[in-house]
Structures are given as C-alpha cells and as structure tokens.
C-alpha cells in the first residue's frame, strides 16, 4: 500500500514523514516544486520544526517521494488532504483550494480507495461538499470509494510529538469509511480514536479552537478591566488559576490559520439557519480579540504623548509582526495589523523582527529599524511597553 | 488571642471550626440563635457538609462558642466577616448586610485589632466602603486597626478540604494590614499567599467566577449549536478536551451565590466609568446562561406536542429545583426559574426534589408530584429529558 499526502506545508510534511517512518511508502504532493526538490534531497524546508530534520533526512527521496504531479500518485490507495484553508472577506470559508485538490484526486481515484480530509473545515463539509466533488468527478459512488475526516492537531514547533502522543480522532462519512480509514491511520497514529461520524470529527477540532478563542477573549477583557482598576492582572491570574480555573494569557489578539477561523465556521453556519441562535458568545469573542490592537495602540500613543516631542516625531518600534512568537507566519497576524493601525494614526512606527530581514520588512510596505533607535518600543509577545 | 467569625453559614462555619481545630478560641456570631444553640451542643447544622460533623462535635460549645451578640466578642483581637451578599434587582451588589455587620464590629473594635473580609465583593470594596464604615463608626483611623481581604474559596460539600489544601490569598488595605492579617491566617490556613493589596485579593475571587461563568456559557452555546447540527455534544466534548482544552459541561444556566454574581461586579463597575469598556464578554455570558431555560422549555414543549394529548394536559415533572445537585439552596436557581417558566407557558408542571418535602415544594407555590406520574420528566442536573 502507498499513501499520498496532498499538501507538504507545516501540517502536511510532518504527517508525511511520520507515515514514511512507520514503513509505508508516501507520495507527497505540493504545488511548490522547489519544496519538493528540497524534500527529495533530504532537506527540511520548515525551520520552525527542528525535529523534522532527522525524519526528512532519513526518508526524503526514498520512502517519502515529493512531487507536484497528481499522476505520480495514481498507484496510491489512500489520499490524505492537508492543505491550508482561508476565509474570504466576509469570513466565509474559502473552499477553492480544497475543490481543486479533490477534483485532482477524483481524476486518479480507483475503486476501493480511501480519502481522508485533515484540513479543519466547517462541520459537514466532508459529508456534503467533498463527497459531491468526488462523486461527480470520479463517476463513482460512496461505497466504491471511502471518505473520512481526521482533523490535524498540529502545533508548529511540536508537530512530530503531537502526531505521536496527542489524541487524534477520525470519523467516516459512513460506517465503513470510518472503519477502513481508522485501520489505516492506526498504522502510524498511536493515540487514535474512531468517532461516530465525519462531522463529529470536524466539530471536535472546531470547538477546541472556539474554546481557545473565547478564553483568549476572556483574558483580554479581564486584562483591560484590571488595567482600568489599577490591578496587576498577572499577579491576580497567578492565584486565580488552579486545577479548575485556567484563565489564559492576554495578548494583542488571536492570529494565524487556526483560532481566528474556527469560530467563524459556526457563526456563519448559524447565520444561514433561520433561527435565533446567532452564536453570540463566539461573535463577541472574535470582536474582543480583533479590537485588542486598538487598546494597545491607545496605550502606546498615551506613552508617546508623555514625551517632550510632538507625537508624529516619536519613534516607535514594534518588536515582532508574526502572529505567534518564533513562527514566520503573517496570516491574520494582529501584530502586523497593530503596526498598520499605528501607521494609520500617523505614528512614526518601524518594525524589528528577528525572523525577517530589513528587505522583507520593507517589502511589506513597512519601515524597518532597531529597537535602540526608538523612543518607545513595544514587544507584542510579552506585552512589554518600554520608553527609552 | 481570640478570633471572631461573623457568619456561621455554609462558608463561615467550616472556617470557624478549622480555626478552632488549630487551637485558637473562636467566638462565632450569627443572627440565627437556633443555629448557635445547635453548634454549642456540638451538632452540625449543615447537612451537605459531612466532614464538618467531627469538628463541631469536638469544638462546639468549647473552643468554638456561637452567639448572636457582638458584645460576646469584645475580647477578640481578630474579626473575620463571612456573611452572604446578594444582588439587588438591578444586579448591583447589595451591601446592606455587610454595612450592618461592620457597624457592629466598629462598636467593639479596639486599637490593634485586625479585621478581615472573606465575603466575595466587588474589587475595592474593602479599601473604600468597608474602611470608611469602620473609621467613621469606631472613630479610629486605619493604622490603629488593620484591614484585609481574603476571599473564601468554599465549595459546599468540600469546605474542610478546601480550607486545608486549596490555595488561599490574603491582601491588606495597606502593607502593615496585609502582613499582620497574613501572620494570623497562617496559623490555620496552610496554603496561604500574601498578595499585594486587598483589591487584588478581591479581584482574584471575582475573575475565577467570571472564568466559570463564561466557560459555562461557552459550553451552553456550543451545546445548542451541536443540537442544531445533529451532533452529539458529549461525544465531541470528550475528544476535544485535553491538557490545554477544558470545555465545560452544559446546563440549565448558572445559579447560586457565587458564579452568577461575580461577573456583575465587574460589569457594573465598568458601567459606572465613562469609558467604552463595557465588559461585553461577561455580559454576553450572563445572558446566554440566563437564557438556557428558554432552550430547555422549548425542548420540553416540543416533546410534549408529540404526545397524543392537548399540551396543557401533558404532565411534566422537573426532577430538581436547587441550583446545584445535592445542595439545598434556591438562590438564583435556574432550575426553579425553569419550573416557573413552564408554569407561565400554561404547562401542567410539578416538581420532585429529594431535598424538599411535599409541603416545602407547595410553600414555594409549586405543584409536587412523582416522576412516575408524569408523561415527560426532565432531570435538570443530567439534562435528561424522558418520555414515559
């Protein structure tokens, strides 16, 4: 048996290598040909994932073969899709990448093949949209092929240990699909659980993200209230938290490919239905997290106005633009949004981020500079605002 | 040294006995003279607190003396206030009980005495309102007496172990008050931490309650969404939860003396201030939890309409009216509110609750009946709706 993994990014590549490491031949597919070449040469293209290096060196170009052509995967019996998903400007899931991937798979799908979606999607996507795409294009019916969902639970920097230790769920569009997909996955995922359907598997991942988003929003709201009351939030949090209480850390908001997307899956689904269940906690949480940059910009401007300079001449350095510390990723980064908001307020703001060169920063249309040249610097990861 | 504990209820009595058990003489004050008599006879008046029995038998009427007269406590050097607090109809904290207690204490307060408030209050109550009451009435200034806050962290049924194991914080209105109160408390609370101020101590308790309320609201919202999508919430929750994810259990809302009150402390404080920080997550969480009974009433009525009877003739039994299972307490009970809402909808609803006699149920203006006589019964603690 050969397994194809479609998408060799931060989530897909660790999965592909873990499958290869279990002794199964893997055909990895990615549109980025350069990345495929690197992998086939045994080189890890993901800097943030140090544990990956060893596995790629061992299997890259051997049991793990990377390619940009779907044809190369036509002898595979299992297709695992793990590509990124974005939201459109109205916060609806943009399924265009997935559609193209599943159309390509359908073109080479054979009787008895198993297809598993790992990308986090709105609940019911697998059993409705994905099934339709596969059936229409392959001219086969479910039962001739099998379809399941097993949401990735990757966290950049910890992906290999997540795959080897963290609980992972899998659920089929029908019972047979669930059982067949489970039997395959069990070969390379030790902590695997078969759930009753694909939509339960999808929902599990989504509500985990909603928990994170709402709890980040709660921490942010309580942080703003402490600030108003002159209370040191971190002191209070230290003693409020215990076995049954887990107040999160405040931040500049929630960014990246996961947390800010999942609440929208449910908000939008509830919007479509003609009920009065409008997911108001999820909505409010999203608002609070998105508004946090306004709180910080106000704070920074307040500090700036204390200096003996007209405000537009106050030099402000923001020490980080990625959505998370140490991960070179800007999708929905609130720290990048914070820099842009300061610019909009006519502040003289520049950026220093260890993960980006001066040129890369300038390419984003931002000024680059060193913290030591600033009057005020703000570290968005540790929420430290310092005046020089 | 003698310690006075004012309030011998579900929170105060366990504390008083734990202090007595550490070898310190305690004068307990409670307005309920019958309760005082029971305690002095060595009888535990709180059924839900079985571990208390042994301590009361050992110390009641001996090192723990209960009385209704403040005069009896005039030789005490430490006064600990642990009385209930309610919200008024506008959800503002009603401080009238506290005012009366502190006026009484001020009447017998001596130089060098230490006063500690344990009742959970809106942040800054101790340093402003309570301090003023004591200074005005005692004609002494802070520094002549000492004032601190150490919020109780009791949970009915586990109060003794909470006092002996759970982390507890204490903070002074000024530094000296904090240190002095800490030194006393350390004699009977093993896991004690001195925090930087009384308001930090108050805030710690309040945000812990906010965490609970918002997470119950999140569970309730996600539960309603699963219901809409035809997903078994409990299956999804089982696999969504792990070390970093703690989705709570859904319910009929949050009742009792603690969780539904604390968010209001912060919401109301933010309302007073002329900012745009309106604590919207805390507000939304309160709304969701209070609205849960509407969801359940709708569910019950839907089930009722499936039966071959006109709806007003469908017999409905609600199996529990207390705010929490096993605790005979109706304050802000959403289960009681659920029964009343069903009545308002002209349902033939009756109540069965192991903790209440038929007469007690009828005194509340409710019908009493047995589940076996119902067409539909609803267990609000386990969310089980069954049709006979």
Descriptive tags:
globular; homodimer; Rossmann fold; 13 helices; 43% helix; eight-stranded mixed sheet; alpha/beta; 14 strands; four-stranded mixed sheet; 388 residues
Question: What's the layout of helices and strands?
Answer:
The structure is a homodimer of 388-residue chains.
Chain A: E1 2-6, H1 12-21, E2 25-29, H2 33-40, H3 52-59, E3 64-67, E4 78-81, E5 86-87, E6 93-94, H4 96-108, E7 114-117, H5 126-138, E8 146-149, H6 159-165, E9 168-172, H7 175-185, E10 192-194, H8 198-229, H9 233-240, H10 262-272, H11 280-306, E11 315-318, H12 334-344, E12 348-351, H13 358-363, E13 376-379, E14 384-387
Parallel strand pairs in A: 1-2, 1-4, 2-3, 4-7, 7-8, 9-10, 11-12, 11-13
Antiparallel strand pairs in A: 5-6, 8-9, 13-14
Query: What is the highest CATH level, the class of the largest domain in chain A?
Result: Alpha Beta
Gross morphology of chain A is: globular
Q: Report the sheet with the most strands of chain A, covering strand number, pairing sense and barrel closure.
A: 8 strands, mixed
Q: Please identify which CATH superfamily of the largest domain in chain A we are dealing with.
A: NAD(P)-binding Rossmann-like Domain
Q: State which percent range the strand residues of chain A make up.
A: 5-15%
User: What kind of assembly state do the chains in view correspond to?
Assistant: homodimer
Largest interface (CB within 8 Å) is between:
A-B, 55 and 57 residues
Domains of chain A, number: 3
Order of helices and strands of chain A: EHEHHEEEEHEHEHEHEHHHHEHEHEE
Percent helix range of chain A: 40-55%
**Are there runs of chain A of 5+ residues with pLDDT below 50, and where?**
none
CATH topology of the largest domain in chain A: Rossmann fold
